[in-house]
Amino acid sequence: MVTIEQFAKEVLNFSSQYGSEGSVSYTVPNVSGSTNIYPNYGDFTQALVFRTYGPWWQQAPSTPQPFTRTSDTFISQDFVELWYEDKVYPQEVRVYETYHPGAVVRILALKRNNSCSKTSGETTPRWYELWSGEPVKGPPQARIFSPPLNKIDFPTNVIRLEFNHNHLDYYTELDAIELVGTQDKDDEGTDLDAAYAAHMLKQLTLNDPDSTKHHGQVESPVGDNGFFDILPSEVIQLLFGYLDVPSLCNAALTCKLFRKHCYDPLQYVELDLQPYWPQVDDSALDGLQSRCRHLQRLNLSWTGGWGLLTPESFCRFIEYCGSELVTLRLGCCDFVQTDCIKVIAETCTSLQELDLQSCVDLDNSAFEHICKLTKLQTLNLYRCRIEDETLLRIIRCLSELEHLNIGSCVDIENCDDIFTELGNNCSKLKSLDVWRTRTLTHIGLRALLHNCSDLLELDIGWCTDLSSNTQCFINLIRHCRKLKKLFLTANRSVCDADLNAVAEFAKDMEQLDILGNRVVTPASVSRVLENCKSLTLFDVSFCLLLDLVTVSSMRETFPKVSIKKSFTH
User: Fold this and answer.
1) Using the 8-state DSSP alphabet, how is residue 177 labeled?
2) Mapping DSSP to helix (H, G, I), strand (E, B) and coil, where does residue 461 land?
3) Residue 443 phi, psi dihedral angles, 5° rounding
4) Distance (Å, rounded) from C-alpha 33 to C-alpha 46?
């Protein structure tokens, strides 16, 4: 039996990245191909790097409200899907971790036909879990992570890895991901593993098992309901409120009493389907539709890939269940098309939060419909292909906007105009992320301050056209004294005067990033540490005048602050 060892040929999909779209520095496509960093350990631009690390992004003012009913076992925060040239029965997946290892929490394989298209196929594509586990921080050295895999009864050339960064001290970096397997089936143990995988898929099914019948005609098991018959209906409802969605679906099969409560629309005011993304397809949404008449919060992030969800099915669901929605999260959903946004805008008139991050296939014209959602308070367009004029029209219509993310929106050509419009129309703005929107200058930043003094969070990392000699950072800090998070990443011009202003006027600062600075001295850094008593994160990586000895001393003096000092060997 011949063993094939192969590195990824192409990245098919991913959730986020540190680097710029189309760049070769710190981007996800770097993980394709063979190793070029391993066995070296350190911060290298040629590595895959995701957008976040540690717990700090979950502690920022822009953090979305969590869903109350969700799976405790789902801990994934990022993902990458990889295509390999040869289909094999997997024996190993080797993850070459070259900086802060220990983020991988899940590995899956895709079963599909020979076509590379995500939408074509003779059979429905399905994901099967090869491995899952808790994230464990590894020692500070490069390693090959290769966990034991469940056997599957089909060959595959599409692998998906999921990651959790909460426990890591800094960005995890990957050099390559190698798939090892055979083209011949190893019968030993395969049937048992495949049976277990099929069993788990059945356990997690979300669709109505009696969807072929009218809901009023479904036959349910008849029998004694035990002591549940003597419990008040409100108590039973409360008990079922602790069940996750698959458990509710399974409990509905038990007896008529359980079915009545499991189908009560009040059990589906919130619906978080992201943990079950491999099982969410058209039939799942159709099966849930009758129970979601009072749905207020819906999370479909990561769902529907490889044609599992169609735009028609999604639109049908939203038209029936979306009139009371206030939260809708569709991060990384490649089924979302212009018609979907149009239906959302026409149906979800009370919507307050819309997350479209990494919906990279949406055309600019699709975003025009967002102008109708005048009650929006949170809008996440990270990595979306929205253009200036469309975004300007949206801002003019959303006077209630509090949180806006337009990070890595590469089609924005004049960020100054965007900031000016925000300053004129969005006085309630609390957080703004324009990561890597390079066209921002002091003119736009000054215009924003005109009316947005309640800002709590501002990420202007890699906005390299901003210059400290215009006094723009000092003016920002003096006007926005409630700031808790400020990222000035890779702005070489930030100087001691700017940090002194932080120490004097932004005493509530919790997270500060000045990575890559060339002129800031230890004195001003120490002043920030002394005066900002709430500070928990301070990134001074690659700051020219702050050596490791100095930073180590600061860490001893201020142990409650996580002071970051990345390095490259």
Assistant:
1) E
2) coil
3) -65, -45
4) 12
Give CA–CA dist 253/58, Å, rounded.
37
pTM exceeds 0.85 for this model: yes
Element (DSSP H or E) covering residue 51: none
What residue type is 418 in one-letter code?
Answer: I
Distance separating alpha carbons of residues 460 and 537, to the nearest angstrom: 16
Peptide bond into 39 cis (omega under 30): yes
How far is residue 122's CA from residue 558's CA, in Å, rounded to a whole number? 61
**3-class secondary structure per residue, 264-289:** CHHHHCEEECHHHCCCCCHHHHHHHH
| Residue among 372, 302, 240 nearest 13 (CA) | 302
CA 199 to chain centre: 29
Distance CA 388, CA 324 (A): 30
With vertex at residue 482, the alpha carbon angle to CA 480 and CA 488, rounded to the nearest 5 degrees, is 65
Alpha-carbon distances, residue 279 vs 70, 124, 343 (angstroms): 15, 11, 24
End-to-end CA distance of the chain: 41
Integer Cα distance of 444 and 465 in angstroms: 11
Run means of pLDDT, 10 residues per run, the chain, 569 residues: 96 97 95 97 97 95 92 94 98 98 98 60 81 94 98 97 96 98 75 45 51 43 66 88 87 88 92 96 94 96 96 98 98 97 98 98 97 98 98 98 97 97 97 94 95 96 96 97 98 97 98 97 98 98 96 98 89
Residue 235 carries which side chain, given as an amino acid letter?
Answer: V
Please answer whether residues 353 and 327 qualify as being in contact, where contact means their C-beta atoms are separated by less than 8 angstroms: yes
Q: What's the token pair of residue 359?
A: 């919906």
Handedness of CA 542, 543, 544, 547 (dihedral sign): negative
Residues in the chain: 569
Contacts of residue 280, Cβ cutoff 8 Å, sequence gap at least 6 = 206, 273, 300, 303, 304, 308, 309
Give residue 245's pLDDT: 87
Contact call for residues 548 and 522 (beta carbons, < 8 A): no
Structure tokens at 240: 């079922």
413: its two tokens: 């050509």
Q: Which residues make beta-bridge pairs with 213?
A: none
- Cα–Cα distance, 367 to 20 (Å, whole number): 22
- Give 87's DSSP letter: E
Sign of the CA dihedral with 495 first, then 499, 504, and 505 last = positive
Q: 3-class SS at 168?
A: coil
Integer Cα distance of 528 and 520 in angstroms? 12
